[in-house]
Amino acid sequence: MFCRIWSMVIHGVEAVPVRVEADVSDGMPMFTIVGYVSAQVREAQDRVRTALRNMGIVLPPKRIVINLAPADIRKDGPRFDLPIAAAVLLAIGRIPPKSLEETMMIGELGLNGDVQAVNGVLSSVLKARETGMKACILPRANLAEGKQARMEETWGISSLKELLAYCCGEKPAQEIPGPQDEQEAVCPGEEFPAQEEDFDDILGQEGVKRAALISACGFHNLLFLGPPGSGKSMAARRIPTILPPMTREEQLEVTRLYSIAGLLPSGQPLIQKRPFRAPHHSITAHALVGGGRFPSPGEITLAHRGVLFLDELPEMSRKVLELLRQPLEEHQILISRQEGTYLFPAAFVLVAAMNPCPCGYYPDRTRCRCTDGEISRYLGKISQAFLDRMDLCTEVPAVSCETLMSQGNAKRREGMTSAQMRRIVACAREAQQERYSGSRQRFNSELTAAQIEKFCPLTPEASRMMEKAYDSLGLSARGFHRVLKVARTIADMEGSGTIGTAQVGEALCFRSMDKKIWRV
């Protein structure tokens, strides 16, 4: 007898419907799985056979063939155990016909028949809803995640016995185990709880805070440049505390990525805080941008809608840094392999920190002992094309002893707190939401060249300032546009619809800071 069950395979970051076809016929007893499957999927025959036997169901001595179609997409992982078992049970008549029509299911089986959690559940349920399926059957442990897709007929089961009961008309329990998404969400990749970090902890460095604030308001890339111990990493790790909250759509985007990567926090079905990823400078190209024979998401994809922090930037391989150029411009990365093409989202804010020389104290020649050749080689690891993609570049000076001694004196600490900065970010974010309503853009940093002319009106004085700066600073076309985007953000922070000389002047200061060190 022939039958068919629907399931899903993860291809890159997208779910693709899979037909799990089962045929049980007379012939030499055997159990075969075909359809471009990995070794993990082939092992399903032993897990399914043993799980059914431990439930008291003995498969007849017949020829059992399972086909996972389409055959041109590789099937991997244990997610097909449950649909294979359901297809076999349907083919041998242990499940009523039509009880699983237009139903998608995924799940791993234990040898005792228990249904265990798998990765990529949210993407699978979203795809099932998009393709018009009526119901989804998931492992009970993944039910909370699957419910985030808001598909009405989403059921969680913990064993094959519950599947048989469901097919006979008995609906599984709807309780969702563990913490719910109403509780405080986890920020993936965050090493320190956000509530324990505050920009108020940073003494002095008001210019650094200003740059971080502009970066958060417009989602602009930011480069910190300064000597060791000046607070570059400290400032970077506090940027998530002032970022605007994610929309529901962005939460689903991030959650499905972390679910596919197997990094969704336990008991947390929906990620509500923006990611903060801080890989070590020894990271490889595949780990950063994704890749491998069967590509999986890299750090830039895991930082989607959040922050990617690269400390000790010149210590990274130049080859790795140059790979960032395309995703920084296009907010996605396309990886081509013999098996197919994989598109990974990468809309993130790049925050980088570096010393100006190997010892860290250039251009202070009273402390710097590096030769001109050493400094040139060190800075040469960062190409001008890469620098062009950094919207803001700010110097982080060493903190004076007097400033440090004021730590215990509240009256002498006049800088903004994260809460105050968040209010400014919220106002700028509202202005951008209203301006870009109905378009794909969310932040000023995402404007195209054509949109800059429409949304970045300059006063006559500001236009003349930009004309002079273009020649005197040797700006590229990309650099020119990025100055205008930053000026647009500064104007939004000040509630101005038109960009004036004050906003352009500040944006140019952040663009010209790197010239001092690179001496371009």
Dominant shape: elongated
What's the CATH C level of the largest domain?
Alpha Beta
Stated plainly, the CATH topology of the largest domain is called: Rossmann fold
SS-derived structural category: alpha/beta
The total number of structural domains is 2
Task: Give average pLDDT, whole number.
Answer: 90
Structure, described:
The N and C termini lie far apart (75 Å). The protein is an alpha/beta fold. About 2% of the residues have low confidence. Strands 11-12-15-10-16 form a 5-stranded parallel sheet. A 4-stranded mixed sheet has the order 1-2-4-3. Strands 5-8-9 form a 3-stranded parallel sheet. Helix content is 37%, strand content 16%. It has 2 domains: 166 residues, Ribosomal Protein S5, domain 2, CATH 3.30.230.10; 207 residues, 3-Layer(aba) Sandwich (Rossmann fold), CATH 3.40.50.
Keywords:
single chain; Rossmann fold; alpha/beta; 21 helices; 520 residues; four-stranded mixed beta sheet; five-stranded parallel beta sheet; Ribosomal Protein S5, domain 2; elongated; 2 domains
Secondary-structure map with pairings?
Blueprint lengths: L1 E10 L2 E12 L4 E5 L4 H4 L1 H11 L8 E7 L11 H11 L11 E3 L2 E2 L5 E2 L4 H10 L4 E5 L3 H5 L6 E4 L2 H8 L38 H13 L3 E4 L6 H5 L11 H13 L15 E2 L7 H5 L9 H4 L4 E4 L7 H5 L2 H6 L1 E6 L2 E6 L3 E6 L17 H8 L4 H5 L3 E4 L5 H5 L12 H18 L13 H7 L4 H13 L4 H17 L7 H18 L2
Helix pairs in contact: 2-3, 7-17, 7-20, 19-21, 20-21
